[in-house]
């Protein structure tokens, strides 16, 4: 009553053994594909972690640099500016990781929060009563009177260009893991599991426990079984090319490291621009928001000396080098995996599964 291992000679197999063999080949095939995938998945997961650590290192450096700007050059507002600075860098981090947000909304929200502080601490340092309503009016007025000139828009443009590739690379790596996980659990068809039993276990039914399949026979069976997986070849090659493109974009003229390290400078220029135009801004704000309470003998606008550089360059150079090295190493490895899905049958038929160094092997019907 055998369904798969039918043979002219007497057999030591039963139908129940054939069913056990089918369960065994399904389990073995999943384990074989998992073993093949392991190195590739390990590399991608490792680099997702490494990239994120490098991103976080650069973000922390850029955030500390920006905080130092306020503490050294704009001390009257440093304490109150700490929260908007923290929010800005949190939003940038979330954007890189794929959150539903935009660089523009993050940057403009920061400048909305910054304007009431610049206005009340630097342009009109005599203001004593900064009510919630007045603060909100200043926030809304920022969008209309544009106190920071072109600097806020320039920062949006610069960060958008550099962060886009990082965000896409982060999402692409996650997609790569998803694809690999899906192929590991691709179900074997009934025809495939029967063909695998015939190839691997039917010789056992004849007492031929040491004989192994012929190479060509193994390749035919595996290619048939993995046709749906090997169809990923074209898309996988395209995926690798896209990773290469994104990595090159990150390393191009609008690179992430330079954009992040320049945030403090853009904010500094924006604040200086607002101070230079203080009288015009005050006149406009008074019309829109009214005049707040001021101390007697209104203090003159503080003369701020622009900060040329904030310390910590060595940390930045290390993070910059680390990210560049990881990028190169990762793309080099991924390029070597370009034929991963095209060659999956060959790799499964490699090693101990088939008979390579002998003239005797199993062809599905007999020993040849």
How would you describe this protein?
With 368 residues, the chain is mostly helical. It has one domain (15-292, 323-349). Helix content is 71%, strand content 0%. The chain contains 15 helices and no strands. The chain has helices spanning 15-73, 75-96, 103-123, 132-145, 151-184, 190-200, 202-205, 215-225, 227-230, 233-251, 256-261, 263-276, 278-289, 313-336, 344-348. Helix 1 packs antiparallel against helix 2 (75-96). It is rod-shaped.
Quickly list its features:
single chain; 368 residues; mainly alpha; rod-shaped; membrane; Glypican_CS
Strand and helix map with partners:
Elements: H1 15-73, H2 75-96, H3 103-123, H4 132-145, H5 151-184, H6 190-200, H7 202-205, H8 215-225, H9 227-230, H10 233-251, H11 256-261, H12 263-276, H13 278-289, H14 313-336, H15 344-348
Helix pairs in contact: 1-2, 1-5, 1-6, 1-12, 1-14, 2-3, 3-4, 3-5, 4-13, 5-10, 5-12, 6-8, 10-14
């Amino acid at each position: 009553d055998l369904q798969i291992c039918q043979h002219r000679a007497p057999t030591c197999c039963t139908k129940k053994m054939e069913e056990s063999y089918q369960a065994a080949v399904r389990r073995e095939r999943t384990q074989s594909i998992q073993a093949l995938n392991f190195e590739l998945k390990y590399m991608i997961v490792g680099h997702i972690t490494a990239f994120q650590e490098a991103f976080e290192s650069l973000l922390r450096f850029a955030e500390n640099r920006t905080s130092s700007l306020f503490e050294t050059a704009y001390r009257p507002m440093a304490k109150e500016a700490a929260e908007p600075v923290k929010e800005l860098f949190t939003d940038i981090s979330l954007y890189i990781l794929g959150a539903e947000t935009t660089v523009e909304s993050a940057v403009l929200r920061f400048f909305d929060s910054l304007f009431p502080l610049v206005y009340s601490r630097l342009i009109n340092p005599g203001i004593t009563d900064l009510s919630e309503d007045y603060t909100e009016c200043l926030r809304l007025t920022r969008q209309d009177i544009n106190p920071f000139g072109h600097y806020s828009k320039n920062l949006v443009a610069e960060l958008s260009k550099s962060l886009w590739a990082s965000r896409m690379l982060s999402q692409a790596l996650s997609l790569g893991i998803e694809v690999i996980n899906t192929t590991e659990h691709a179900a074997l068809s009934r025809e495939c599991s029967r063909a695998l039993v015939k190839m691997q276990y039917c010789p056992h039914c004849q007492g031929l426990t040491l004989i192994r399949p012929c190479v060509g026979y193994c390749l035919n069976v595996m290619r048939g079984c993995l046709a749906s997986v090997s169809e990923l070849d074209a898309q996988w090659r395209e995926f690798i090319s896209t990773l290469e493109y994104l990595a090159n974009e990150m390393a191009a003229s609008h690179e992430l490291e330079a954009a992040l390290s320049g945030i403090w400078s853009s904010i500094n220029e924006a604040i200086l621009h607002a101070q230079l135009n203080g009288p015009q801004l005050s006149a406009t704000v008074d019309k829109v928001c009214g005049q707040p309470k001021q101390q007697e003998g209104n203090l003159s606008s503080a003369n701020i000396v622009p900060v040329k550089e904030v310390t910590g360059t060595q940390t930045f150079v290390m993070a910059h080098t680390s990210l560049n090295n990881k990028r190169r190493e990762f793309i080099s490895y991924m390029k070597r995996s370009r034929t991963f899905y095209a060659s999956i049958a060959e790799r499964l038929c490699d090693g101990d599964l088939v008979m390579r160094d002998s003239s005797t092997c199993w062809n599905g019907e007999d020993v040849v």
